[in-house]
Write a sequence for this structure.
């Protein structure tokens, strides 16, 4: 069967970042050159992320697309990133992006080791993933160069219809109510939940758990570099370091 991708992006407030738009445009060109058709579902103004993702999944399952490419509207990505994931021919594969935070302690330790500015930046990032074991070894790759994971963020994730079909029997049916009017029923593939220790898990973690519960594997391509766009408050105390007058 010829591959066709649906881009699924929940856009809170109907807004997307410049990095996301630039990534889409450059990837569309590469996909077109490889004769891969692209459809999309850009879910705007949905305040409940779980409901938005479930609506997109439902739309995907009713379409003729073979793959659903989840991309969050605040993710920047390289021009061949989607094609790389597609060419692995895996049911569930994605890439890692940094959390919207800086690990200052790890940066401090790295600076003691006289690292370069670029390495210092990399050491300050913490990623939206969970490894299968406590080794956290991103170099533990298979023959394709992929690393099996416990969890991946849905911010940049490619899945096939097989993923949804295999987990459907274990998912609840739900529908939304707006102003007293009920929407159509949908399958609740995405939901939040508590783990065995009472920790609240996000909808992407629960989605990964459900896939692994039915025997599925989750793969990470660590070679794909992603940006996570956000806001930052620049703090400082001039009395501590002096003024930069150059």
């Amino acid at each position: 069967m010829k591959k066709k991708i649906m881009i699924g992006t929940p856009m809170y407030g109907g807004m997307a970042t410049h990095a996301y738009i630039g990534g889409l445009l450059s990837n569309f060109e590469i996909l077109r050159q490889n004769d891969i058709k692209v459809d999309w579902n850009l879910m705007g103004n949905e305040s409940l992320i779980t409901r938005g993702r479930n609506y997109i999944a439902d739309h995907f399952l009713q379409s003729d697309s073979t793959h659903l490419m989840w991309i969050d509207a605040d993710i920047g990505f390289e021009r061949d990133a989607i094609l790389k994931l597609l060419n692995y021919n895996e049911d569930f594969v994605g890439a890692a992006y940094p959390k919207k935070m800086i690990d200052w302690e790890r940066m401090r330790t790295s600076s003691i080791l006289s690292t370069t500015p670029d390495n210092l930046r990399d050491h300050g990032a913490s990623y939206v993933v969970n490894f299968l074991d406590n080794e956290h070894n991103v170099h533990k790759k298979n023959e394709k160069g992929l690393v099996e994971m416990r969890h991946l963020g849905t911010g940049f994730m490619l899945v096939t219809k097989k993923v949804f079909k295999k987990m459907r029997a274990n998912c609840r049916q739900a529908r939304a109510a707006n102003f007293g009017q009920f929407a159509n029923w949908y399958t609740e593939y995405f939901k939040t939940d508590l783990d065995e220790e009472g920790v609240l898990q996000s909808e992407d973690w629960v989605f990964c758990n459900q896939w692994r519960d039915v025997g599925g594997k989750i793969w990470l391509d660590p070679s794909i570099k992603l940006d996570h766009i956000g806001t930052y408050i620049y703090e400082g105390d001039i009395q501590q370091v002096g003024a930069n007058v150059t």
